[in-house]
Amino acid sequence: MTTTQKTAVVTGASRGIGKALVQAYVKEGYQVWALARAAEALEELARESGGAVKPLAVDVADEGAVLAASKRILEGGTPRVLVNNAGISVSAPLHKTTTEDYRRVMKVNVEAPFLFCRELIPAMAAAGGGRVINIGSMAATRGVKYTSAYCASKHALLGLTKSLAAEWARKNVTVNIVNPGWVETDMLTNAKAAISKSTGRSEQEAHAALANMNAMGRVIQPEEVAALCVFLSSDAAATITGAAYNIDGGEAG
């Protein structure tokens, strides 16, 4: 793959999987556009990187902000890699899931990746090719109760991935989705707190219950997700497109 610049774009980059992604791509010699709402955390990442990280504070729920960020990125050169990692979840029964909650989940988890792909993929193709990786979830492949909005968004992201993979395959742009199980992130912390509150179990017991949902009986680390994304960005993955990679400790069976 020949592109003008070894540059990666990572959304939701200030913590968790996003932060691990930024650090992994920097280690591989990339310049990384790190996008998130948390400006201070991004600036800290930039300082730690020795100049390899370009911080860009963006609320991906704001279409205008996404379009402006895409324009700024392209002004600096065509990226080789786009990782749509930013995501939010709402955990509530259907009758307690508000329309506002649903719309925000869809904006962050589906609309933002669609917009970034629409704005950046044509430039990637014109430059010789690129890699797009969408961070999904095990909820992209099955139903999970009390997370109807989140499941709907991740199923939609899976469909978007497969459609764009087919559309851009002849232009040397691959599009894949990575579906993690429970990862050591804030989402896991929130889930443990919710389990403790509703069942009376300790957070340690809640952690064990979540870990035991997969065959390995362990929680996935952000760095493990990042390593898979780096592989999918490599020349070794040149013919992998439209694929859904589960990184879930065997949870899907």
From TrEMBL:
Coiled coil: none
Entry-linked InterPro entries: NAD(P)-bd_dom_sf (IPR036291), Sc_DH/Rdtase_CS (IPR020904), SDR (IPR050259), SDR_fam (IPR002347)
A biological process term (GO) from this entry: monocarboxylic acid metabolic process
UniProt family annotation: Belongs to the short-chain dehydrogenases/reductases (SDR) family.
Record's protein name: D-beta-hydroxybutyrate dehydrogenase
Protein's organism: Archangium gephyra
